[in-house]
Amino acid sequence: MNDVDLAPTNEILSKYPADARHLVSVLQDIQLAYRYLPRQALEKVAETLGVPLAKVFGVATFYKAFTLTPRGKRVLRVCTGTACHIRGAPLLLTELQKRLNIKPGETTEDLEFSLEVVNCVGACALAPVVVVNDTAHGNLTVSRVRRLLTTKEKASSSNQEEEN
Fold first, then answer.
1. Model's pTM, two decimal places?
2. What is the edge-to-edge ordering of all strands in the sheet holding 74-79?
3. Model confidence over 8-17: pLDDT tens digits?
4. What gap in Å lies between CA 160 and CA 61, rounded to an integer?
5. Contact 100, 113 (CB under 8 A)
C-alpha cells in the first residue's frame, strides 16, 4: 500500500466538529482533495469522527459519487442517453477507449484521464456530449473528441471555440 500524505485529510477534518453527522461532507471534501478516497484517509476519518471503519466504507461505497480508486485529473463522462446515442456517442466512446487504451471505469496509468459512461447529462440539444470534469462539450465528432485529449490549455481554447 502506498503511503498517502494525510495533511489534506487532517486539514479537512480540522474544519468539522468530531461528529459522525459530518461524515458525508468530510468524504466529499477528501474526494475533492485526492480525486478519490484513499484507505488511509478513511481510517483517519473513522478515528477522528469516532465512526467504525466499516460504516465509513459503507458510506463511501453506497454513494456512486465516491470512488475508492484513483481517478484521473480529467474525468471524461460520455453521455449514452437516447439523443447522444443516436447522434454518435458510441463512436466517441470507441475513439476515447482506443486513444486512451482504457475501458469505461478505468484510469490511465499516468492518472491523467478516467473514462466513464453515464446514462444522461441533461444536455440533449447538444448531443452527443462528453463532460470533462464539470464542463460539457457538445455537438462532438470523432475529430473534436480527440481535442479533449490534448493539453488543458488547448482543450480550454477549443471549448471556447465550440461554444462560440
1. 0.75
2. 113-118, 74-79, 130-132, 135-137
3. 999 999 999 9
4. 36
5. yes
